[in-house]
Amino acid sequence: MNMFRLVVALLFLAYGLIIGVLNTQPITLKLLFTEFQTSSGVGIMLSLLLGVVVGGLIVLATLVWPLYAKLRKAMRAVAPSQDAGG
Asked: Following DSSP, what letter does each residue of 15-84 receive, concatenated?
């Protein structure tokens, strides 16, 4: 499994390098209070990374935290019954 993860990570790294090399046109990224110049390849990769982070946070907030809260509640409900039965 670790070898598979290494291969996938190397493929994504190679993909990122190819995007960076093929897209060298300068662009200006304008944010709320600042702006900076970079190549379009870096802009594309930053956009993809930001999308992954935002998507991960959405999954975390809508799935993981509620399920974790249900698990904690279920564990609290089970713990007193185990003490009484033992």
From this structure: HHHHHHHH---EEEEE-SS-EEEEEHHHHHHHHHHHHHHHHHHHHIIIIIHHHHHHHHHHHHHHHHHHHH
How many C-beta atoms surround the C-beta of residue 45 within 10 A?
18
Question: Of the candidates 47, 43, 45, which has an alpha carbon nearest to the alpha carbon of residue 16?
Answer: 45
Q: Would you say residue 86 has pLDDT above 60?
A: no
Note the pLDDT tens digit of each residue in 6-61: 898 889 888 888 888 888 899 998 888 999 899 898 888 888 889 889 999 999 99
